[in-house]
Design a protein that fits this description.
The protein is 39% helix and 6% strand. The chain has 5 helices and 2 strands; from the N terminus they run H-H-E-E-H-H-H. The two termini are 37 Å apart. The protein binds heme C (2 copies).
Length: 197
């Protein structure tokens, strides 16, 4: 999924994959439940002695044990308020990659509340790490840049966090070599050397 950093940043841009999946699952659940009921009643009518062997209605919608549902965010100030937990997770993962950091670069760790793996859980709605607020400013800045870039109406290339950060929390200084412009024109290739293609 590509996060778009522009002024009309909107959750509507996300494909409704999550919602659709939910609908599918709930339809599946309902039909499974209906089938179970029907099967059960048929069994009861035909043979009272035989216990109904209806499939467990819940199986279809039971998520795999690993996948914990992403809770809906409560403290969004720059991202759209209706951003779902899943969308947020994807955006956050992109920020991790763009800045070459882990989630705790911006989010406070709850050192008294450990995951099964022994790592502290994160207090994601908490705003005490300055990096989190910097990231908010950065998000707005990126939107403003893209507004300007959009007015040029060129290739549609968007600036993202990674455009500047390139895998570093603090963007590395870039100094173009001033020598390049002062260098005398390249000598013409000597006879016998094949110019590179
Ligand atoms: C570069 C800083 C940064 C990194 C890295 C980052 N986040 Fe965030 N996160 C933010 C900011 C800023 C917000 C608030 C956005 C807003 O105000 O709209 C946020 C919000 C959240 C929220 C919503 C909290 C709430 O209830 O409002 C969750 C959950 C979250 N992040 C999880 C994560 C996870 C998980 C990771 C790692 C995969 C991560 N974040 C990495 C900056 C970051
Ligand atoms: C136009 C370039 C540019 C873009 C785009 C950009 N940043 Fe930055 N960002 C910077 C610069 C430059 C700094 C360093 C400022 C300083 O020296 O304190 C910085 C600093 C930060 C910091 C603080 C780092 C620290 O050392 O504490 C965070 C966090 C951050 N950016 C997050 C983001 C996120 C998240 C995005 C995308 C939503 C983003 N930035 C987009 C240029 C950019």
């Amino acid at each position: 999924m590509n996060v778009e950093y522009n002024s009309d940043y909107s959750a509507a841009k996300y494909p409704n994959v999550v919602r659709n999946l939910f609908m599918k699952l709930s339809t599946l659940y309902l039909s499974a439940a209906a089938t179970a009921l029907l099967t059960a009643s048929v069994f009861i009518v035909t043979t009272v002695a035989q216990a109904p062997q209806a499939p467990a209605a819940g199986t279809a919608s039971t998520p795999p044990p690993q996948a914990r549902p992403n809770r809906a965010p409560t403290n969004l100030q720059v991202l759209p308020k209706d951003t779902t937990g899943q969308q947020l997770r994807e955006i956050m993962a992109q920020w991790n990659g763009a800045l070459g950091v882990q989630c705790n670069a911006c989010h406070t760790e709850d050192t008294k509340n450990l995951n099964p793996n022994g790592k502290s859980r994160l207090l994601c709605a908490d705003d005490s790490k300055p990096e989190k607020n910097t990231a908010r400013t950065m998000f707005k800045l990126t939107g403003t840049i893209n507004q300007c870039v959009g007015k040029i109406g060129s290739t549609g290339t968007q600036v993202s966090c990674g455009t500047c950060h390139r895998g570093h929390l603090t963007p590395e200084a870039f100094a173009a070599s001033p020598v390049a412009e002062l260098r005398p024109p390249q000598a013409t290739p000597t006879a016998g050397t094949t110019p590179e293609k």
